[in-house]
Design a protein that fits this description.
By secondary structure, this protein is α/β, with parallel strands linked by helices. It folds into 2 domains: 4-54 and 150-181, Ribosomal protein L1/L10, rRNA-binding domain (Ribulose 1,5 Bisphosphate Carboxylase/Oxygenase, 2-Layer Sandwich); 60-147, 3-Layer(aba) Sandwich (Rossmann fold). The chain is built from 7 helices and 8 strands, in the order H-E-E-E-H-E-H-H-E-H-E-H-E-E-H. Strand 3 (60-63), helix 2 and strand 4 form a beta-alpha-beta unit. Belongs to the universal ribosomal protein uL1 family. Pfam families: Ribosomal_L1. GO terms for molecular function: RNA binding; structural constituent of ribosome.
């Protein structure tokens, strides 16, 4: 097991050997698994909350109508889709794909889950972006805050995994804490 101090040293070394760019680079954690037989159905599909939020938080789309839709708008969700817009998306696959690719996470009202499954299930499922159901009286801001500081780790048919842990403007210790959490 690697300690946070060792991770901090590795991050400092990686930053020192890298040349400067005209943009803010992301830092990713790569892991290679050993002694695992991929053919026996090994897969990982997890959402991990990072302890230190990155400068560019994950984008979250909320599928809700009525009171929960209003709460999501007040909580400053990146996009709120109501049931009318869902039925409109059912007719336009191209717009649906564009919507799905532009968001990292999806949350949905439990009452809308059957409609979401019918309309967007074929597109969300293979990408591993099926919406997380939100109970009716759950605090939507807590869900949004949790998912904005999260990353999705997905491994299928390979012995390696990578995910973003931050960007070069973050402190080395914060990056090490995020890497250690994963």
């Amino acid at each position: 097991m690697i300690t946070e101090a060792q991770l901090t040293d590795m991050i400092k070394e990686a930053k020192a050997t890298d040349k400067d760019r005209k943009f803010k680079q992301a830092l990713e954690l790569f892991m290679i698994f050993k002694d695992i037989d991929v053919k026996k159905g090994f897969s990982i599909n997890e959402t991990i909350q990072l302890p230190k939020q990155t400068s560019a938080p994950a984008t979250v789309c909320v599928m809700a109508s009525g009171d929960m839709g209003l709460k999501a708008k007040n909580a400053k969700a990146d996009k709120v889709i109501d049931s009318d817009e869902l039925t409109r998306l059912a007719a336009n696959k191209r717009e649906s794909r564009k919507l799905i690719n532009s968001f990292d996470f999806f949350l949905a009202d439990t009452k809308l889950m059957p409609v979401v499954g019918k309309v967007l299930g074929q597109l969300l499922g293979p990408r591993g972006k099926m919406p997380t159901p939100v109970p009716f009286n759950a605090p939507i801001d807590a869900f949004l805050e949790r998912f904005r500081s999260s990353v999705r780790v997905r491994v299928k048919n390979s012995l390696s995994m990578s995910c973003k842990i931050g960007d070069e403007s973050m402190e080395d210790a914060d990056l090490a804490i995020n890497a250690h959490a994963i």
